[in-house]
Amino acid sequence: MVTRYQLKHPEYDLRCIDCAGEYENDALYICPNCGGLLEVRLKEVELDFKFDGNIVGVWKYASMLPVRIKPISLNEGGTPLFETNLGECKAYVKHEGLNPSGSFKDRGMTVGVSKAVELGRKAVACASTGNTSASMAMYAARAGLKAYVLLPAGKVALGKVAQALMHGARVIGIKGNFDVALDLVRRISELENFYLLNSVNPFRLEGQKTIAFEIVDKLGYVPDRIILPVGNAGNISAIFKGFKELKRFGMVDDVPKMVGVQAEGANPVFKAFKEGRRDIIPERNPETVATAIRIGNPVNAKKALNAIYESGGLSVSVSDREIIEAQRILAGEEGIGVEPASAASIAGLRKLENDGEIARDETVVCITTGHLLKDPEAVIRVCGEPIEVEAEIEEIRRVL
Ligand code: F0G
């Protein structure tokens, strides 16, 4: 058989972002010494890819990904980078909704589920606002693992629940929000020996860092800014880590400013940023139309705030009205259909431009994290149902 990529695996260990503890144990996701978040630290890499503009997917960058087996893959990544007329600046959209399950989570899950298999685990679990569960269920099915999902009952978009169910996950709605679900699934995973695949898992974030690689691969340079929605705050941390690694290994000279966008009703990272803090004050009752980022106690907040400060970036907060307006503009004027949370990045771009934060000569990449079809009910609430008429030419012409 011909394999397209000679998979060369990097040397790495896990480091605690708080106490700097170093571990060679892939089964950890939290520092056993201080309870801090762990990060994969690449030690030695032997790069076997080139930034040649050929965007083919996550595993093009295998030589920077900490997996030692043939990965469980569904052809994730390789998403398009569209040039748009969304801003005064040069504004691109990287449409992560075009991943196999319809969200960026697939980049993380191909690595996370591969790690579960590598570790010999039989079951994976997550709490989710929807997309993580859809993606995890899909990759677990592919790997032949059992999948367990805790969701905030009644607060997850229908398309996402449908995916998790059809891919065979055991889906349980709890009477509580995402933060409560995450706390519960962490404890249950411990008791039941499930491999936890929320973004507290450092291997998942490794897959997501390939968004940075693809942006540089496609553009041929590092953009000035990355703008993306922030929920549990994993993705902004992962993408920044990707850029930092490129710099560390001498492939680029700079990193972009990281801009994290939150919804007004669920914006603890924004508030911490405003006050110059590196930790958040959890919000007990987060609420927003962008259910994917309806999170009051983001587990990766510290990594995200580090990314924002270290990159010279910022955090911005947008209203539900601004999110929906951005969703309509993106769909109606650019042909890019995204779910509300993803539109937060465009709403953030518009707000920053209005505030004069972005210079006209800047290149900005907005990450649209999930596909429009994920949340059809939100669309119907905004756009209404289609008009119905009798099946007659004149009737139809009347309403055209
Ligand atoms: N956009 C979408 C569409 C999401 O589903 C999520 C997170 C985010 C943005 C935020 O990413 O958590 O890395 O800051 N969804 C998670 C889930 C929480 O369970 O699907 P983050």
Overview of the structural elements:
This protein is of the alpha/beta class and 400 residues long. 36% of the residues lie in helices and 17% in strands. Strands 4-5-13-10-11-12 form a 6-stranded mixed beta sheet, sandwiched between helices. A 4-stranded parallel beta sheet has the order 8-7-6-9, with helices on both faces. Strands 2-1-3 form a 3-stranded antiparallel beta sheet, with helices on one face. Helix 7 links the parallel strand 10 and strand 11. The longest helix has 15 residues. The protein starts with 10 loop residues before the first strand and ends with a helix. The model has no long low-confidence stretch (mean pLDDT 96). The structure holds ligand F0G.
Alpha carbon gap, first and last residue: 56 Å
Based on CA inertia axes, which overall geometry fits? globular
The number of distinct helices, counting runs of at least 4 residues, comes to 13
Spans of 5+ residues with little confidence (pLDDT < 50)? Answer: none
Percent strand = 15-25%
What is the number of E strands? Answer: 13
> Mind telling me the C-alpha Rg?
20 Å
The major sheet is characterized as:
6 strands, mixed
* Multimeric organization: single chain
Strand order in space, largest sheet: 4-5-13-10-11-12
Helix share, percent: 25-40%
